[in-house]
Every structure is written in structure tokens, then in C-alpha cells.
Design goal:
The complex is a heterodimer of chains A (125) and B (338). Chain A has 125 residues and is of the alpha+beta class. Chain A has a single domain, classed as RNA polymerase II/Efflux pump adaptor protein, barrel-sandwich hybrid domain (OB fold (Dihydrolipoamide Acetyltransferase, E2P)), CATH 2.40.50.100. Chain A is 20% helix and 36% strand. Chain A is built from four helices and nine strands; from the N terminus they run E-E-E-H-E-E-E-E-E-H-H-E-H. The two termini of chain A are 20 Å apart. Chain B is an alpha+beta fold. Chain B folds into two domains: 210 residues, Gyrase A, domain 2; 74 residues, Elongation Factor Tu (Ef-tu), domain 3. Chain B is built from seven helices and 19 strands. The longest helix of chain B has 11 residues. Chain B is globular. Classes of the chains: A alpha+beta (125), B alpha+beta (338). Chains A and B meet through strand 4 of A and helix 1 of B.
Chain lengths: 125, 338
């Protein structure tokens, strides 16, 4: 996941930007820290979020965790497979475990890290 | 790794769900050395223990063990524990880790002269081996045949010193709790690993016991509740005196204002300890434990609710703070091994 259009947040979300649409997920580091995921509270299509708003909630056996919107946008699609198979996030956090898609308000991406910067961030913390 | 009652312990080894399923279909082992173990010996032991515990120890046979409670004078539960009878003058009491020091002080203060008390929690190690293949593995590794050992019965055997194996556990599966000299535990653990037994951590221990409908001290049981409110009176049937008896009998006669119940939520979104239980917009209780059950594939848990709302089949809601989850009161256990 070191393609030029993939960005990372300090809260361990990834954002893959394609034109004015982006796919959101949590990173492999995040899924390992959470443990087995048992439920994903997917957002409604049409939900409007600003950057850093809670986008959805991911539940593991031990706790519930917020996933925050890396950028502002409207939810345009959700990964329905996660309803019956939330473990896809553990198995493939950067692939089949994608969470939702956002229609971006602005194509400009601010305050996000590249893959290299995220790797450095992980090592420093 | 987390701090569990002052012990540094693993929540998981290769994953809570994997360890949970492996326990129900195969075999796993749990490091339970953190729990407390006391030996009580000498003339007068039986009477002394009987006066302290709700357990009817005079009705237990040699080689048998029984679940019961240590109570305060006001009936509040100090701990839940298992009492092992070797003979009338030789006993072992196994308690929780977090309450070990409290229990030790309470018991020692109340034992008569002549009854010997030893805390063997550090000199004797404990490991739980649980699952459909547990008994066979224990036979292979320990050289002791437990295939015919009855539920809540135990044997002693030699493993570089006195060793004990009991048909008990905290998972709802067939299995044993093993006690060996501390200096032999690492070798024993490695021998189980060598025959393919994988370890399971605190996370699976909790999902397994919850599905099996077993209470956890500090959640379903505490000094703030009596066995009446904890719906545990089937373990409190002794008519001879014990500390807390008058309070328990009074409470039972009055009927408790609130009582422990099980609940089930169709779905995967979990209710968790501390969350309010609500009926028609009014809080009627609180969740004491809740989790997605990996075998059941639904959420199950315990709650303390007003007695008027406690009948099986009552529909309630749990307020998670993010959502109101629809639940139904059910009688545990939620799962029973085939």
C-alpha cells in the first residue's frame, strides 16, 4: 500500500483517493491492536462527515473503537460483506476489509501521511 | 499483555476467537497460576471450614470438591471458590487472584488454634486443560488416567511431588484443573506444548465462561451482593451455621429487590459491563458482563435487574450510549457442551 494515492492518519486509518472519491479503511497495525473484530457499525449512505468526525464504530471482543474520517465528504458506499464477515478486516485490512467510500468535498488532501511517513510514525511510537 | 489483578498476563496468544473455538472443538490450556490456593489441615478443620463457607463440606466425600462462597456477616460475597476434601482433616480451597489476600486474612483470623493454614499459591502451580480432547492429553502427558474421573472429583498423583487433577474448569467443556509443584510447571507446560496443546489467554477465558453461564467475581459477584441477589442459592443449601447465614436467610425470605439474570441480543453488537438496562424508557438494571459469543454467534451476558423485570422472556433494552440494543432475558447457561 505505498501507492502515491494512499494516505494515512495518526489514528491508523488509510485513505485511497481516486478522483473525487476515496476508500477508507483501518491499517494492519490497527486490526492487530484491536484483535478479532466481531461487529462493524457501518454508516448510512449519505452521511456527511468533516475530517476527524467519527465515521463508524468497529467492535472487537474486548472493546468498541471509533474510526475517524480522514477527510471531509459524504458516505457513498459501504462494504456490505462486513455485516456477516467482520473478520475480513483482520484478514485483509488494506484489501477486502475496506470500510466505506467517501465522495470528497475537495480533491485536496491535507494533514495526512504517506506510507513512508506512517511507517516512521509507527516506529517512533 | 495486561495487568490482571496485579499479574502480567496475555489476553490472547494467536487470537481470542481461534482460542475459543479450539477449546470447544479440540483442547487448550490456561495458565491459572495467579489464582489463590490454600491448604487447611489438622483436627477441627472440617468444622472450621464449615463455619466459614456456604459449602456443605460435611456432605462432600474424600476426593470430591464443591463450589461455594465466602460471605461477610451481612451476606455480601467476599469470594466464590472451590473446596477440595482430601479427608476430614486435609483440605484445599482455591480462590480468585484479586481476592486472595483478602480471603487469606479473613480465614486466618477466624481459624481456631490447632487448625493449620498454609497459603500455597506460590509453591503450587495451576494450569487448566480444557476441551473434548483434554482428558486424553492429560493422560498422555501426566500418566494419570482421568477418563473415568467424575465431575467435581479429583485425584492426587506424583509429579515430582504431590500433584492434583480435578474434573473442574471455567469453560463449559470437559477438562481438568491441574496442580503441580511450582518447580515442575514450566516442564509440564512444555510437555503439553510438545503434544500439540495450544495455550489460550484471558480473552478466550472470558468468552468461554460467559457462554457457559459462569459468573465472574467483580462483575456478577461482589461484596455488594448476597447469593440471593446473585441467583446463586442452589449452591447455598446448608442448614448448619456459617458466617452470613442469618443475613442470607432474611434476604431470601424478604425477596431481593434486584436479581442477576442472563440476557441474549440477536446480533453482533455487544452490550458491556456498566451499561444501563432499560424498560419503557426507565432504567431497571445494569449489565454486569456482556460479549459476542463466538460459538453462539450472538451477544450474551448477565445483568442485575429489578426482580419485577427478571422473568425469562422479558424484553428489555441495553443503552450502549451509541444505540439501544433489543435484548431478551434468558436463563443461563447459554451454551452446553455436547
Amino acid at each position: 500500500m505505498s501507492a502515491k494515492n494512499v494516505y494515512y492518519t495518526k489514528d491508523h486509518e488509510w485513505l485511497k483517493v481516486e478522483g473525487d472519491e476515496a476508500t477508507v479503511g483501518i491499517t494492519d497495525h490497527a486490526q492487530q491492536a484491536l484483535g478479532d473484530i466481531t461487529f462493524v457499525d457501518l454508516p448510512k449512505i449519505g452521511k456527511v462527515v468533516n475530517a476527524h468526525d467519527s465515521l463508524l464504530v468497529v467492535e472487537s471482543v474486548k472493546a468498541a473503537s471509533d474510526v475517524y474520517a480522514p477527510v471531509a465528504g459524504t458516505v457513498s458506499a459501504v462494504n456490505e460483506k462486513l455485516v456477516s464477515a467482520p473478520e475480513l478486516i483482520n484478514q485483509s485490512a488494506h484489501g477486502d476489509g475496506w470500510l466505506c467510500k467517501l465522495k470528497l468535498f475537495s480533491p485536496a488532501v491535507k494533514d495526512l501521511m504517506t506510507a513512508e511517513q506512517y511507517e516512521t510514525f509507527l516506529q517512533e511510537n | 499483555m495486561v495487568d490482571f489483578s496485579g499479574w502480567y498476563m496475555p489476553v490472547q496468544y494467536d487470537g481470542i476467537l481461534a482460542e475459543h473455538h479450539r477449546t470447544r472443538t479440540d483442547v487448550t490450556m490456561f495458565d491459572t497460576c495467579h489464582m489463590g490456593r490454600f491448604r487447611v489441615r489438622g483436627p477441627g478443620s472440617l468444622e472450621a471450614i464449615s463455619r466459614l463457607l456456604t459449602t456443605d463440606v460435611s456432605a462432600i466425600k474424600d476426593g470430591q470438591c464443591k463450589y461455594g462462597f465466602l460471605l461477610r456477616e451481612d451476606g455480601g460475597i467476599l469470594d466464590d471458590l472451590i473446596t477440595y476434601r482430601f479427608n476430614a482433616e486435609n483440605w484445599m480451597i482455591v480462590v480468585n487472584a484479586g481476592t486472595c489476600a483478602k480471603d487469606r486474612a479473613w480465614i486466618q483470623e477466624r481459624l481456631p488454634v490447632g487448625v493449620d493454614f498454609q497459603d500455597v499459591s506460590r509453591t503450587m502451580a495451576k494450569v487448566d486443560v480444557q476441551g473434548p480432547h483434554a482428558l486424553a492429553c492429560v493422560g498422555a502427558v501426566c500418566g494419570v488416567n482421568v477418563a473415568e474421573l467424575g465431575y467435581f472429583r479429583f485425584l492426587t498423583f506424583d509429579y515430582g511431588g504431590e500433584a492434583i487433577v480435578s474434573r473442574t474448569g471455567y469453560t463449559g467443556e470437559k477438562g481438568v484443573e491441574l496442580y503441580v509443584d511450582s518447580i515442575r510447571i514450566i516442564e509440564l507446560w512444555n510437555r503439553f506444548l510438545a503434544v500439540g496443546v495450544k495455550p489460550a489467554g484471558l480473552g478466550a477465558r472470558d468468552t468461554l465462561r460467559l457462554e457457559a453461564g459462569l459468573p465472574l467475581y467483580g462483575h456478577e459477584l461482589s461484596e455488594e451482593v448476597t447469593p440471593v441477589e446473585a441467583a446463586m442459592m442452589r449452591y447455598v443449601t446448608k442448614s448448619s451455621p456459617y458466617v452470613g447465614r442469618e443475613a442470607v436467610m432474611r434476604h431470601q425470605a424478604q425477596g431481593p429487590a434486584k436479581i442477576l439474570v442472563g440476557f441474549k441480543i440477536e446480533g453482533r453488537q455487544s452490550a458491556r459491563a456498566g451499561q444501563p438496562v432499560v424498560v419503557n424508557g426507565r432504567q431497571v438494571g445494569t449489565v454486569t458482563s456482556g460479549s459476542f459469543g463466538p460459538t453462539l454467534q450472538v451477544v450474551v451476558g448477565f445483568a442485575s435487574v429489578e426482580s419485577a423485570c427478571s422473568a425469562a422472556g422479558t424484553r428489555v433494552q441495553v443503552d450502549t450510549g451509541r444505540a439501544m440494543l433489543e435484548a431478551v432475558i434468558v436463563r443461563p447457561p447459554f451454551y452446553k457442551a455436547v
